[in-house]
Design a protein that fits this description.
The chain is α+β, with helices and mostly antiparallel strands and 302 residues long. The chain has two domains: 149 residues, Alpha-Beta Barrel (N-terminal domain of MutM-like DNA repair proteins); 133 residues, Helicase, Ruva Protein, domain 3. It is built from six helices and ten strands, in the order H-E-H-E-E-E-E-E-E-E-H-H-H-H-E-E. The strands form three sheets. The chain has a four-stranded antiparallel β-sheet. The chain has a four-stranded antiparallel β-sheet with strand order 2-3-4-8, with helices on one face. Helix 1 packs across helix 6, helix 3 packs across helix 6 and helix 5 crosses helix 6. The protein is elongated, with a radius of gyration of 21 Å. 39% of the residues are buried. One of its GO terms (biological process) is base-excision repair. Monomer. Its EC number is 3.2.2.23, 4.2.99.18. Keywords: DNA damage, DNA repair, DNA-binding, Glycosidase, Hydrolase, Lyase, Metal-binding, Multifunctional enzyme, Zinc, Zinc-finger.
Length: 302
């Protein structure tokens, strides 16, 4: 499933085409995805101007003049494709379909929603949502998106300076669950997923298996650990966004190409390889936690 950097990359790609555009027509080619489409889905979108595209954790939010707000989730295999209806060039960050790192579905049978939009300059384009597994969804929020049941319980964003060592320690204080499991709890930190948690823990030299509350205890050492982990989380997310997201099999950017942060992975999917941390000498191991693969180095991650 796409993680926060992938969703942010999609948002930025769509932003250049959708923000300020008027929705001329919407084709919903089936009655549902993971959930049924909202009542009068196409009718309520048609004619509306898109004022902003946002993101909350792994959710895209499309703000419409006069409401509602459209909340989108990519699910396991969802992607957006942008196509122009004339010879106009695509705006920056939203080029026409390019080369795939791993090819994504182009089968039109999986094109479930098509937004026909017109820019303020009169340029027409189509934004198509393709989702072979149909695990994505599109829902309306009649008020602020953060009040919608899908978003209301989400924790702090792992971007910017809001997530610091002090806040992280307060979130983890007294918790006995494994550290990786706690970081995946969307009620604590919103948007973190399996890949980037593994990477952040490696950068911070912390074991995913250790009790999460141990970095929230009184004392200098725990404070240094919580500071290091908060910094690692922010850095790994920022690096991934800058790189365009990770190059996993079921993720594609809006221009049809995949990101390349996977080439920078230190531990994820590197079982048996030497640890790249200077002076470590250990090897990357794989264990299973709550049904998910965890990659780490037991030599330098304590």
């Amino acid at each position: 499933m796409p993680e926060l950097p992938e969703v942010e990359t999609v948002r930025r790609g769509l932003q250049a085409v959708l923000e300020g555009a008027r929705i001329a027509r919407v084709e919903a080619r089936r009655p549902d995805l993971r959930f049924p489409f909202p009542e009068k889905f196409s009718e309520r979108l048609t004619g509306k101007t898109i004022t902003a595209l946002g993101r909350r954790a792994k959710y895209l939010t499309m703000y419409l003049a006069g409401g509602p707000v459209l909340i989108c989730h990519l699910g396991m295999s969802g992607s957006f494709r942008i196509e122009m209806s004339d010879d106009s060039e695509m705006p920056d960050n939203s080029e026409m379909l390019g080369a795939f790192y791993h090819e994504r579905s182009k089968n039109a049978v999986h094109d479930h929603v098509v937004f026909h939009v017109v820019s303020p300059k009169g340029v027409r384009s189509r934004v198509t949502f393709n989702d072979p597994r149909r695990f994505g969804f599109m829902l309306f929020s009649e008020g602020a998106p953060d009040t919608h049941p899908m978003l209301a319980g989400l924790g702090v964003e792992p971007t910017g300076n809001a997530l610091d060592g002090g806040l992280l320690a307060s979130l983890l204080k007294g918790r006995k669950s494994p550290l990786k499991a706690a970081l995946l709890d969307q009620r604590l930190i919103a948007g973190l997923g399996n890949i980037y948690v593994s990477e952040a823990l490696w950068r911070a030299s912390l074991s995913p298996l250790r009790e999460s509350g141990t970095i929230a205890k009184p004392g200098k050492k725990a404070r240094q650990q919580s500071d290091a982990l908060a910094e690692a989380i922010r850095a790994v997310i920022a690096d991934a966004i800058a790189a365009g997201g990770s190059s996993l099999r079921d993720y594609v950017q809006t221009d049809g190409s995949l990101g390349y942060f996977q080439h920078s992975f230190a531990v994820y999917d590197r079982e048996g390889e030497p640890c790249s941390k200077h002076g470590c000498g250990g090897h990357i191991e794989r264990v299973v936690q709550s049904g998910r693969s965890t990659f780490y180095c037991r030599t330098c991650q304590m």
